[in-house]
Amino acid sequence: ACSLQSCLNKHTYQPERCADNLRDLYLCCQKFYKQTDDKGESTACPLPRVVTRWLKDHSA
């Protein structure tokens, strides 16, 4: 989350330059939710179903 925020601050008018940071955050959240059986809570992560949908929609 911190690296994403730093990137967005650095590239204020070019958020697409932070796509890798955003992907890393979602992958981290996915791992977190897998480890907690989707019961974990985090202020940095969207709800588990949002993470799953985003990763599905943005698969490489």
TrEMBL record:
Keywords: Disulfide bond, Mitochondrion. One of its GO terms (cellular component) is mitochondrial intermembrane space. It is found in: Mitochondrion intermembrane space. The keyword Transcription regulation does not apply. The keyword Disulfide bond applies. Pfam families: CMC4. InterPro entries: CMC4 (IPR027179), Cys_alpha_HP_mot_SF (IPR009069). Belongs to the CMC4 family. This is Cx9C motif-containing protein 4, mitochondrial.
